[in-house]
Design brief:
single chain; 70 residues; mainly alpha; 77% helix
Length: 70
């Protein structure tokens, strides 16, 4: 989020939203969520304000499920 915010301010090539969402889905959802609100970046985009918390919730549920199985 920090890199994309910096690039946005400099009017440079941006990190695709798909890549940011994939980063969240591959385990970086907490970092993406914290970065969104700490930097006020992508907070007006529904796919981020709804999608990233849903991804985080799903990852937490998966973690609880896997820990219960161990």
């Amino acid at each position: 989020m920090l890199a994309d915010k910096h690039k946005a301010r400099k009017k440079k090539w941006r990190i695709p939203e798909r890549t940011l969402l994939l980063t969240a889905a591959l385990g970086g959802s907490l970092g993406v969520l914290l970065g969104m609100y700490a930097l006020r970046h992508k907070t007006l985009h529904r796919k981020f304000t709804i999608g990233v918390p849903l991804i985080l919730a799903a990852q937490c549920l998966l973690a609880v499920f896997l820990m219960a199985k161990l």
